[in-house]
Amino acid sequence: MKDEVYLYNHARWEALAHANALFTRPKLDLDQQSAADYLGLDRLGFTGELAGKRILCLASGGGQQSTAFALLGAVVTVFDISPSQLERDQAAAEHYGVELRLVQGDMRDLTCFDKDSFDIVWHPYSLNFVPDSRVVFHEVSRILKEGGRYYLMCANPFFSGLTHQDWNGEGYTLQHPYKDEMMTSYPDQEWVYDQSQSAAIQEPREYRQTLSRIMNGCIREGFLLAYFSEVKSNDPEALPGSWGHFAEIAPPWVEFVWIYNPHILSSK
């Protein structure tokens, strides 16, 4: 599905990887305990042994979560739009002496995987890079086994497109309509990569997914909500107009854990 969305995301993430952006840097200092802590598995309610579990790291290249799961004994597949990101996963796997399966593609098309292929689908921040989240949920429901877990992190729908640069002296001004597929863009944060060396990288292009679309989209595919969290900075001393202050006032991210039960709705 190499449409304009695919081409934009492919080009941007290739450029970010070449710029050594924060989310493209492999984690090379993990052991089993720190891997579990890094993933936050206890906090998210992932209890029990992961050894032998089939895990898909969805749109999750960069050599971070994939090798953390592999160190815990899981059988890990990484699916990402960026070949350079997948190269980072391969380098991290070689560093730790673990094996990963690497697949390049678009999260909206997971037909390369058979039905019931995975016990866990781990989907960190990337859902907002496509216009219609429901397409992704449908694909995930097909490849996730019954009783499997779907971890999802995405932009907080209420603050999508808002940043610390929207500080008006009293608060952060909402500017974009609250509707699905509203495209937003904003400058990359200065801590993401060395912007003096990477001026050619296109700004982020994201699409708002309203909370109702996310919730109803997952429910209609047979997912039961097991965990929900609003993620903020926990930086109460940050100065107004800074990223830390913004992320304390307006949590920029939300995360979910869904359990797949295809029989929960009679229409499924």
Can you walk through the features of this model?
Helix 5 runs parallel beside helix 6 (211-220). The chain is built from seven helices and nine strands. It has 268 residues and is α/β, with parallel strands linked by helices. The strands form two sheets. A seven-stranded mixed β-sheet has the order 3-2-1-4-5-9-8, sandwiched between helices. Strands 6-7 form a two-stranded antiparallel ribbon. The longest helix has 15 residues, at 4-18. The protein has one domain (4-260): Vaccinia Virus protein VP39 (Rossmann fold, 3-Layer(aba) Sandwich), CATH 3.40.50.150. Keywords: Methyltransferase, Transferase. This is Class I SAM-dependent methyltransferase. Residues 56-151 form the Methyltransferase type domain. GO terms for molecular function: methyltransferase activity. Pfam families: Methyltransf_11.
Could you provide a short overview of the structure?
By secondary structure, this protein is α/β, with parallel strands linked by helices.
Offer a few descriptive terms.
7 helices, alpha/beta, 268 residues, single chain, Rossmann fold
Strand line-up across the major sheet: 3-2-1-4-5-9-8
Mean pLDDT: 94
- Supply the CATH architecture: 3-Layer(aba) Sandwich
The rounded distance between the terminal residues' Cα atoms is 26 Å
Mind telling me the C-alpha Rg? Answer: 18 Å
Low-confidence stretches: none
Kindly state the percentage of residues in helix. Answer: 25-40%
Number of domains: 1
In N-to-C order, the SSE pattern is: HHEHEHEEHEEEHEHE
Q: Give the CATH class.
A: Alpha Beta
Keywords: Methyltransferase, Transferase
Domain Methyltransferase type: 56-151
Protein name: Class I SAM-dependent methyltransferase
GO molecular function: methyltransferase activity
